[in-house]
Specification:
Number of strands: 9
Distance between the termini: 50 Å
Strand content: 15-25%
Helix content: 25-40%
Structural class: alpha/beta
Radius of gyration: 28 Å
Order of helices and strands: EHEHEHEHEHEEEE
Length: about 220
Amino acid sequence: MMTNIPELKLGLVSVSRDCFPMALSVGRRDALAAAYAKYGVLHNCPVCIESETDVAPALADLKAAGVNALVIFLGNFGPETAETTLAKQFDGPVMFCAAAEESGDSLLDGRGDAYCGVLNCSYNLGMRHLKAYLPEYPVGTAQECADMIREFVPIARAIIGVKNLKIITFGGELRAGPAGGLQGPCRGQAHPRGGGRHAEGDGRAHLSRSAGADGSV
């Protein structure tokens, strides 16, 4: 039986601002991957994007894993130039989401400011004229972000499906014929009763008209 629903392979990449601990973003990324496991398979890319030089290794890993839809996760503020470069160079639908602060007790060593990072990310996406999926409220806990990714799945599948869609049509173009009438793409011959024209040969068009003595329709 023919399957015409695209097969989706999700990938997850975390990003980190160089003035924040990378371990914070990586730990939150792993927690998100674990939270999503109950919904399906998610390739957890080991490369954490901190600068533009990290983009190529991340893309190579995603390609090797067969990923065709990407989640870019801001575990902290995130580097807006590098993360939007990744979105631009990835060949497939992209989603952004970000980590909320776990608690007020961890704001000294565990502060990420990912919400502010999303604002910078959105501005850069606009400057680069890039399209990406942003949930209505893109900042949350690991479980909340996992739920956002779950909502992204049908959107990504639809984008991939439409991108690879093949449209086959039957019929020929219509063009103006004598006295302003319509005529098919192949040579016509006079209708036995007069006044009409039928397409001849391959049956691509069958058009006729009734004409008066002066040729008017």
